[in-house]
Amino acid sequence: MAGGFVFASKALTLERLQGRLSNSKIPPFVHFTIGEWESRQGEIVARIQEKFKSLIAVRSSALNEDTKESSMAGYFESVLDVDPRSKEKIQEAVQKVSESYRKKGNGAGENQVLVQEQVQNVQVSGVAFTRDLETGAPYYVINYDDYSGRTDIITSGSSNQQKIFTYCKLYENAPSDKYLAQAVAAARELEEITGNDAIDIEFVISGGEFFLLQARPIATEAARTASSWAGLHKNLEHIKQFIRENNQPFPNLAGQSTAYGVMPDWNPAEIIGIDPKPLAFSLYRYLITDTIWPLAREQVGYKGIGYHPGICSLGGKPYVDIRMSFNTFLPEGLSLETSGKLVDFYLRKLRRFQDFHDKVEFNVVYTCYVLDYGGIEKEMQEEGFTKGEIGELKKCLFTLTDSILSERITSIEKEMGLCKILAAKRGRIVASSIPLPTKISQLGHDCKMYGTLPFSKLARFAFIGSATMRSLLRMGIITQEEYERFYASISTVATDFLFRLDDLKNKRVSREEFLREYGHLRPGTYDICSRTYAESFDEYVNLENFVVPQKPDTSFDFSAQTKAHIQEQLALHGFSISAQQLLEFIRKATAARELSKLEFTKNLSLMLRYIEEYLRECRISREDIAFLSINDILEFSHSALVHTSVERLKEKIVRNKHKYEMVKLVKLPPLIFMEKNVEYFRSTEMAPNFVTQRTVCAQVADISQGAAGADLNGKIVLIENADPGYDWIFSHRIAGLVTEFGGAASHMTIRAAEFRIPAAIGCGPTLFNYAKGCSRIELNCAAKQIKAIL
Fold first, then answer.
1. Exposure pattern of 378-387 as b/e (b: 16+ CB <10 Å)?
2. For residue 699, what are the contacts with CB-CB under 8 A and spacing of at least 6?
3. Nearest 5°: CA angle at 509, between 506 and 513?
4. Within 10 Å of residue 53's Cβ, how many Cβ atoms?
5. Nearest CA to 227 among 662, 654, 660?
C-alpha cells in the first residue's frame, strides 16, 4: 500500500519510487541542487561522466514543479541528447536548465537538476493520466507515439502523429495491445504505491520494457475531486447491454449486426455536439432523425424501413445507428438477399477504414450511380458479390439516380415550394393569438412537414450532385481548379448574408430589416442557451472591420469541349439528361439546400423563443429549460399548466442536471462496433476533409467555447462543431478554418468551398487538440497537412 508516500520534486519522487516498482524500470539518474552546482560544479560533472556512458537527458526538477496544486509541466527547460563525454555539453545543458529557473522568476538555489540516462531504441513514448483531465472521471488516458522513435514527441507537442488510448479503470480486462497493457499495469501499480489515483506519468518503452521517466500528481481541480463511481459503472453497463441486445438481425432492417457513430450520415456530433443537453437532443430527434430522415429518403427512391429512429442515446450521447443509416441508402427494388449482403459489407468496410466515418456517403456506401461506376463493380467483385447481385444494384442505383437528376421523382422547385408554404404558415402562427404551447406545437409540426422534410431531400440531391462532380474529377474530365471554381460560382444564402451585411454597414438596409431575415440564427441551432444574432449581433459581427468579399463569379462555366465530354459520358451510361441539365441541377440543388436550411431554422428558433417566453412565467430560466425535453413542453399544447405541472418540471430539471453530470463523465469512441469499446478504445484516426488547394500560415483562434466578439481577422479559426449559426465568422477576414467534426459535404465544407477559404473539416479529437495546442499553424490543403509553427 501507499505507506504515506509523498510526491516531491521530479528527482525526489523517482528516488522514493526506486526499488518499489515491479511493472516499471527507472533509468539511472543523479540529481543535485542549483546551489550545489554553483559550489561544486567540477565534482558534479565528474560524477556524471563516471556514471553515464551513453546519451543523457538533463531535466528540470523544481521544488514547485510537480505538486498537487501546480504541475508546471513543460514550464522549465529540459535538454535531450547530451553527450556525457563532453564536459562543455554537460555544463551547457545544466546552464540552460538553471537559466530557465531564473528567467521564470524561480532562481532559488534549492531547485534541482535531474540527469537521466536517455533511453535508446524507443518503441513507444508517451504520457499517461490516471484520471480524465477535464472531468476527473476514472479513465487512463494515454497519449502515445509509436512512430517517431523519440522520447519527447508527446510532451513537446511537436507532432500530429500522436495517438490516444482511453481505458476505463472500473474494468479489469487488459488491452490486447501489449504496450498499452504495460502502460495500464504500470499506472495501476503507481496508484497503489502512492495512494493517489490522479497521477501524470511520463514513460518510454524500449526492448519491450516499460521505463518510468517521471510521475507527478495531476494538478487540475477536476482530477483532485474524490467521487463515487458506482453511478458511472452502472451507466456504462447499461450502454453495454443496449449494444449487446441490439447487435442482432432486426425484422425491418437488412444486415446481421450494427455499429454506432457520432459522425456518419446525419452527424449529430457536428450539429448538436457529443454532450448535448436534453432539449437540444430531443429537438434534433423530433425534427429530423426519428422519422423525417428515413421518410425523405423513401420519397426520393430509396427503400422504406418503417419506424426505426436513426439516432440513439448511449449514456446521453447521440449516436447514429449505422445499420439503420445504411438501410436508408438501399435503392428501392433491391432484393432482400442483396440488401443484407450489402449492409454487412458496408459495415465491414467501415470497420476496416474507420477514418471514413464522417464521409460514408462518398467512401463506404454506394448511394447513387456515378460516371466511373466500374470502380464499384470491381470492388463488389473482389468482395464476393455475384454478377447477378452486381448487376441488380447497378440497375437499381441507375434508375434512382436518373429519376432524381431528371427531376421525375420530384423537382427542386416543388420542394422549395414547401418551404414557401412553411414561411406563410409561420407568419400566420406568429400573427395569431393562440396560446404559446399551441404555437410551439404547430411550428414544430410545420417545421417537419414543410421544412426538414424538403431540406432532407434537397440535401440528398446536393450529395448526388457532389458525387457526380467527384466522379468527373476522378476521371480527369474536369480539373481540381474547375471543380473548385464551379462550386465557388454558386451563390447561396451565405453569400447573400455577407452582401446584406455590406448593405447594413453602408446603411442601404436598416438593422431591423437585416435581423428580420437573419436574426434567428444562433451558433448552436438547437441550443436554447445559444444567443441569436438578434440578441447578440454586436458580439458576433464586427461591422467596423467588415470588408465585403469578392462576389462569386456566377458566370463561370465549363468549356464547350468539357461539356461535350460530360455529355458523352451521360449518353454512354444511358442518362436521360444533358450535360447542361446536370450542371444546372447541381447548382440549383446546392443553393436550395442552403436556402431550405435557413427557412426551417426560422421555425426552430421561434420554437425556442416561445418555449423560453412560456416558461419564464413559471420562473424557469433558459439555462434550466435546456434540461427538459421537447415532449415535456409539447404536452402543454393539449393540457393545462397547473401548479403541480410546474413543480414536476422543476423536479425533472434537477434530475436531468444530475444525469447530465454523468453524461459528461462517460467517454466513448467516435465509432462503436462492440461492447468492449465502452471499456477501452483508441481514438479513431480521422482524415480531415481539406478544402481548396491553398496553404496558409497564421495564428489560431479557438472559438469552440463561444468567443464571440474576438478579433478573427487574419487568423485560422478553430471550432469543435460548426453548424449554420456560425456563418458570422465569415464576416471576419479569416485566414482558414479547422473543425473537429464535419463531413465531406457538411455545412462548413460547403461554406469554405464557396468562399475559397483553406479549411480542414472534421479533423477528429487528436488532430484538433494538436492544433489547439499551437499558437500558429500551417494549414497546407494541397499536401493535406496541419503543422505547428509555434
1. eebeeeebee
2. 714, 715, 716, 775, 776
3. 145
4. 10
5. 662
Structural domain containing residue 315: 233-405
Question: Which triple of cell numbers denotes residue 560?
Answer: 464547350
Which residues neighbour 214 within 8 Å (Cβ) at sequence distance 6 or greater?
Answer: 10, 13, 14, 59, 66, 201, 202
The grid coordinates of residue 165 equal 488510448
- Cβ pair 25, 109 in contact under 8 A: no
Q: pLDDT tens digit string along 498-535? A: 889 999 999 999 999 999 999 999 888 999 999 999 99
Average pLDDT of the segment spanning 74-81: 81
- Domain stop point among 118, 142, 162: 118
373 vs 573: CA distance, rounded Å: 9
Q: How far apart are CA 531 and CA 730, in angstroms?
A: 18
Instruction: Report CA torsion sign: 735, 741, 744, 748.
Output: negative
Q: Judge if pTM exceeds 0.90.
A: no
What CATH code is carried by the domain that includes residue 92?
A: 3.30.1490.20
Do 112 and 237 lie in a common domain? no
- 103 & 246 share domain: no
Which triple of cell numbers denotes residue 619? Answer: 420562473
Q: How confident is the model at residue 785 (pLDDT cuts 50, 70, 90)?
A: confident
The dihedral through the CA atoms of 398, 401, 406, 407 has a sign that is positive
CA angle at residue 171 from 166 to 175, to 5 degrees?
55
Verify that 109 and 237 share a domain, yes or no.
Answer: no
Please identify, among 118, 134, 163, the residue that sits at the C-terminal boundary of a domain.
Answer: 118
Across 297-349, the runs of DSSP E, i.e. the strands, are 311-314, 317-321
Q: pLDDT per residue over 262-300, tens digit each?
A: 999 999 988 998 999 999 999 999 999 999 999 999 999
Q: How many domains does the chain have?
A: 3
Residue 652 lies in a domain: no
Nearest Cα to Cα of residue 60 among 95, 18, 17: 95
Question: Residue 173's pLDDT is what?
Answer: 84
Instruction: Give the per-residue pLDDT at 105.
Output: 61
CB 310 within 8 A of CB 324: yes
* DSSP classification of residue 451: I
Tell me: do 394 and 245 sit in the same domain: yes
Torsion-angle region of residue 589: left (phi > 0), alpha (psi -120 to 50) or beta? Answer: alpha
Give the sign of the dihedral formed by CA 642, CA 643, CA 648, CA 650: positive
Euclidean distance between the first and the last CA atom of the chain, given in angstroms as a whole number: 43
Give catalytic residues, as residue numbers.
747
Residue 634 lies in a domain: no
- The CATH number of residue 730's host domain is 3.50.30.10
Residue 448 lies in a domain: no
Contact 781, 690 (CB under 8 A): yes
C-beta separation of 198 from 218 below 8 A = yes
Distances (CA, A) of 571 to 195, 398, 483, 564, 695: 74, 13, 21, 10, 39
- CA angle (266, 270, 273) in 5-degree steps: 110
Name the band, by pLDDT with cuts 50, 70 and 90, for residue 127: very high
State which H helix or E strand residue 270 sits in: helix 268-271
- pLDDT of residue 743 exceeding 90: no
Residues 240 and 112 in one domain: no
Q: Scanning the structure block, which residue is given the C-alpha cell 504505491?
A: 193
Residue 109 domain-assigned?
yes
Question: For residues 159 and 102, which has the higher predicted lDDT (pLDDT)?
Answer: 102
